[in-house]
Amino acid sequence: MGIESALGEGYLTTRIDTLVNWARSNAAWPMPMGLACCAIEMMAFAGPRYDVSRFGSEVFRFSPRQSDVMIVAGWCSYKMSHAIRRIWDQMPDPKWCIAMGACASTGGMHRCYGVVQGVDNFLPVDAYVSGCPPRPDAVIHALMKIQDKIRTEHSVMLDT
Amino acid sequence: MELDLSPALQKTTNGLTETFSEKIIEVYQTSGDTFIRIPSDSVIEICRYLKDEHRYTFLSDVIGTDRYTSEDRFEVIYNLISLRDRERLFVKVWLPEENPEIESVTSIWKSANWFEREVYDMFGIRFLNHPDHRRIYMPEDYQYFPLRKEFPLLGIPGSIEMPNTTPDKE
Question: Which domain CATH number covers A101?
Answer without folding.
Answer: 3.40.50.12280
